# Entry
Amino acid sequence: MTNYDLVVIGGGPAGLAAALSAWEQGVRSILILERDREPGGILNQCIHNGFGLHRFKEELTGPEYAGRFIELVRQTEIEIRTDTMVLELTRDRVLHAVSPSRGYETIQAGAVILAMGCRERTRGAISIPGARCSGIFTAGAAQRFLNMEGYMVGRRVVILGSGDIGLIMARRMTLEGAKVLACVELMPYSGGLTRNIVQCLRDFDIPLYLSHTVTDIRGKDRLEQVVVSRVDERRSPIPGTEMVFDCDTLLLSVGLLPENELSRQAGIAIDPRTNGPVVWENRECSIPGVFACGNVLHVHDLVDYVSAESEQAGLAAAAYLRGLRPAGQEIRLQNGNGVGYTVPQHFHRGAERLELFFRVRAVYKNAAIRIMDGETRIARFKREHMAPGEMETVQLPKVLLDRVKGDTLTVEIEEAAP
# Structure
């Protein structure tokens, strides 16, 4: 068994930022385990620009953004092992991993940072009826085929779901010469960022059908047609509203799930709202010395936010290794009216500051975010626009946190008067 002070599982933007942050705090025995052939994670296949506006104050492609962190890590003595799959994490922070070069090995870590990212929902997860023909891909798989492997996945395309990956692939497929016939969204609002709706659909005259879904898939060997129907307020297809699209490709952009099989196996508490670990304000999980950050914790919109959150996890892991841990009474955070989840899920009384992340359940205009301690309002933040596809964040400084008297804070939406 080998020993490291800190082991980071995942060499994507979260893992790289967390490891670098811990190194800057003086941790010198750091190992990053990455299952892919090279570090960088999902950013390696995101060749479009729009990354780094918050972090670097300039537009970068995904590989350029990842490359900056990879270069910073390479200037340190942080060890990166690629082609390495972590099979198990135990409660006493022993990792079981396998790789072609080292075979099976066990690693004892003083602290662990979970940065495994997320995965896409598949056709099976949403139970689309119809034939089991070829030509059906998740949007991320199609992105990798096109941008990294050099394969064109289709010529006449329908996209189910309006998440950011699906929107970006609508533009990408169009630029490569395919005809994107439609983007179909089950909800009455888009699940992607507004800028992606404009730049990827409207700029290319690709229609977006809200409150619609795919109700049939037709084809023998290769996909030939998809049937799209309008849905009612209960999301059930409405008979007589069917539209038939002749196509050879269906891309699925129907949501992302944090990759937490290792976390569950280790017995880490999982929040059913986020499908990620339950964490404190320093991103420590229910097992002491294990931290989580990035999309394994909750799905982010922007990689800039992933990097910032992961640096917090790196700082906290370094403090843990020095024997420093937050103390104080537990104060729980809960979602109230219009809020789907909150991260973190709890924090310590006496915290110096608290950065809250959450998503709303519907589209709101000219509304406000309220932080409530029972019937007492702790803070109120106005927002002109909020949507489920855009993560919200608010900062609570110590002066506000010191006003909290109870053991629960509620995050809720105050809707505009009609």
Notes: The mean pLDDT is 96. Residues 303-321 form the longest helix (19 residues). Residues 122-254 form a domain with the FAD/NAD(P)-binding domain fold (CATH 3.50.50.60).
